[in-house]
Amino acid sequence: MPGAPAVVPGLKDKGAAAEDAADDLDKAAAPRTRPGVRPLGRGMDDLLPFPDVLDEDEEEEVDESPAGQLLVKAEKLDRAGKYQEAKDTIQEAIKLSPKMPLAWLALGVVARHMGDFEGSVDACSTGLRIDPTDPELYLRRGIAWFHIGRHGIALEDFEDAAGIGYDDPRPELWRGLTLIEIGRPLEAISAYSSAIRRDRTYDLAYLNRGLAYLATDEPAKAESDFDQAIRHDSRNAQAWFNRGVAQARQAEYAHAGDSYSEVLRIDPKHPGARKNLDALRARTGRSGSVLHKQPAAELVPAGRVLGRPAGGRSSASGN
C-alpha cells in the first residue's frame, strides 16, 4: 500500500511526537556488533551511543586519558536520560581534547537525543573536519539531516558512510528509509537489499524491505521478508502482523488469521491485530468462505504509525 509507514530505527528525542518511536531509531543507529553477534546491540534497549562493540575475542581498549574518562561518564548520563548533564560533561572533554573525533561524535548523539538536530549536524561536521574518514560521523550526521528534512544531503552522508564502512548495514538501511520518505520505493528496495547482503541477520532491513514490497504491490515478496525476520526473532510481533497483512493482500485469509493470532499471543494489546482479525472473521464467516460486501480484511495497514520528531522524518523506526 503506497504510503505504508516505514519501521524506522528510533531515537529518544525530547519532542512528544517522537516519544512513541523512541527506541527503534537508536537500535538502528547504535554502533554495530560484528557478524555472529545480535545485530541490534547488547540488549533491545541498548543505545550504545559511543564506542563500537568489539569482537568477543578482542579486548576493549579503554581510554585512560582525562577526556576519555569524561566520555565514559557522559555515556552513563546519556543512558540514564540525563542529556544536559551528558552534554556538559562532553563539552568538558572537548575543552581538554578538542581534536578528539569521538568527543564530537558523542556531542552529536546527545544533541540528537535532546531534539537539537542542527546541533547534531554541527558537532558531527566538526568531527569530520578532524577525521574525514570516520563512517560513524557520516552516518550520525545523515540521521540528523534526515530528521531536519534535508533528505538529499542525508543520502550523500549515508552513501559516504556505506562506502567507508563497507561491512556495516546501517547506512544502506538509512538510505532505504530516506528513499521511502521521498517516494522512491524501488530504489529503497535496492538499498535494503544491500543492507541485507552486508548482514543477513539484520531484521530491520527485512522488515523495511517487506514494507517497500507492499508499497510496490508485491505482497508475496513482502511475506517472504517478514518470514525471514520471524526466523531471526520468532517473538517479533510487528513481523507477524506485517506478515498477516501481506497474506491478506494475497487473499490467504486463513494464514493471515493465524499470523494475527500469533501477534495477540505475543502482545495481547497490539493495536492492529485484533481489528484485522475481527475484520477477517467478518469477511470470511465461520466456514472460511469469502463473504462479499463485508468489511475489508485489512483495517490497519502494515508497518507502524510513528510520531515525527520536531523537524522532520524519520520514521524510521525511531523517532
Helices and strands, with pairings:
Blueprint: H1 22-29, H2 66-79, H3 83-96, H4 101-113, H5 117-130, H6 135-148, H7 151-164, H8 170-181, H9 185-198, H10 203-215, H11 219-232, H12 237-249, H13 253-266, H14 273-284
Structure description:
The structure is a single chain. The protein is mainly alpha-helical and 319 residues long. The protein contains 14 helices and no strands. The chain has helices at 22-29, 66-79, 83-96, 101-113, 117-130, 135-148, 151-164, 170-181, 185-198, 203-215, 219-232, 237-249, 253-266, 273-284. Helix 6 packs antiparallel against helix 7 (151-164), helix 8 runs antiparallel to helix 9 and helix 11 packs antiparallel against helix 12 (237-249). The longest helix is centred in the first third of the chain and has 14 residues, at 66-79. The radius of gyration is 21 Å and the shape is elongated. Residues 1-5, 8-28, 30-59, 287-295 and 304-319 have low confidence and may be disordered.
